Amino acid sequence: MARNISERKPNVKNERSHALNTTKRKQGLNLQVVRLEDGTRVRMSMKDKRTLLKNQQAA
After folding, report:
1. How many other CB atoms are found less than 10 A from the CB of residue 48?
2. CATH class of 3-58
3. Along the chain (59 residues), what's the average pLDDT of each consecutive run of 10 residues?
């Protein structure tokens, strides 16, 4: 079972129709299951995954 390590939460915003009616809408994160070097599986957002890969390549 993968666990979440990201502290990020979904964005909550208003959806506006052409008649300017408002409805609450939740925009979820793009969560991916990633296996770390020590073998643990974690769920992180794609933005965090790209940052992790960028830092690994720089080192």
Report:
1. 20
2. mainly beta
3. 77 96 94 89 90 87
